[in-house]
Amino acid sequence: MNKPKVFITRKWPESVEAKLKERYQVTLNEDDRPLSAGEFKSALQQYDAVCPTVCDSFPAEVINIANKRCKILANFGVGYNHIDVTAAKQQGLVITNTPGVLTHSTADIAMTLLLMSARRGAEGDRLVRSKQWQGWCPTHMLSSNVTGATLGLIGFGRIAQAMARKAHHGFDMNIIYFNPSPASEYVVDDLQATRCTNLEELLQKSDFVSLHCPGNAETKHLINSDTLKLMKVEAHLINTARGDVVDTQALIAALKKQQISGAGLDVYEGEPTVPDELLTLDNVSLLPHLGSATLSTRTAMGEKALANLDAFFAGKPLPDQVI
Ligand code: DGY
Predict the structure, then answer these.
(1) DSSP string covering 42-81
(2) Which residue of 8, 114, 161, 222 is surrounded by the most CB atoms within 10 Å?
(3) Is 209 helix (H, G, I), strand (E, B) or coil?
């Protein structure tokens, strides 16, 4: 029997690509070139499975292409807000993702940004590199304490809880949380975490606010000019979730007015484009969507996508079916 035809949109870790080659008639993106909507449409027509990732856009107009051969989008990544799920459902496409394996690396990046923002790490690095540093003095680049401060988590799934553990056990932080969607199972007994009844309460009480909710219609611009006003003037906002959760223009205005102390961002509305104004501000630390970017995590994500493909083509239950 012919092996199923699989299309991979971007470069994956080599060990996983080697396994794909053994098991499938696979087309890889050796040059790691961003692909166009036209290329995605033709992949949907020519392949049994397409494996997109978080930077590939699959809106309805791509998914609704006629003469589709593809039956499954095995996404490399846990977030799938780049795929129009309603259109995929209507077209009978299966979608899978890769949850559970990027928890710690993403929580580590959230802690990195929290520390960078609190202690002005990126700004200090820029100062030294520009040879403008005049030497130590008692009032130079004063910043905020992390140890003992209150961390407010919006969304309280796996990544938020992992960050809470690092913050609480490593930095003695007080943990509070608010979950916009109904609570699932929380294992919080070692954290003494307090649940806030609403977003306002969380924003008013937190020294650091970290976002961990999915990017969707309900969470779009959850952080906006009104909600930013509720944050303490000493507070920092950390976003490792999705860019759309924050109204970027409102955040820029708040940072410019020093209405909040700082922000640490790993994700952006319309990434990889980052507004020029954000680039000029010293009180924001910027990373290029590095949350899951360790070799072992990205390999584990590839393995998960592969396990989903294997199960699909073997007619077995899918480990991570989204629809
Ligand atoms: C995901 O998997 O959705 C992450 O954003 C990738 O880092």
Answers:
(1) HHHHH-SEEE-BTT--B-HHHHT-SS----EEE-BSS--T
(2) 114
(3) strand
Residues with CB under 6 A from ligand 1: 54, 77-79, 102, 291-292
pTM over 0.90: yes
Over the stretch 115-147, which tens digit does the pLDDT of each residue have? 999 999 999 999 999 999 999 999 999 999 999
- Residue 242 annotated in active site: yes
**Fold type of domain 5-101+294-313:** Rossmann fold (3.40.50)
Ligand 1 center from residue 251 Cα (angstroms): 22
DSSP-assigned letters across all residues of 176-190: EEE-SSPP-----TT
Domain boundaries, the chain: 5-101+294-313, 103-286
Percent pLDDT > 90 in the chain is: 95
Separation of CA 246 and ligand 1 centre (Å): 17
Residues 103-286: name the CATH superfamily.
NAD(P)-binding Rossmann-like Domain (3.40.50.720)
Angle between helices 103-119 and 158-165 (to 10 degrees): 50
Catalytic residue list contains 218: no
From atom 4 of ligand 1, which residue's Cα is the shortest distance away? 77
5-101+294-313 with 103-286: one CATH topology? yes
pLDDT digits (tens, 9 = 90+) for 262-282: 999 999 999 999 999 999 999
Residue 308 CA, ligand 1 centroid: distance in Å: 17
Q: Is 150:174 a contact under the CB 8 Å cutoff? A: yes
> Is position 82 annotated as part of the catalytic site?
no
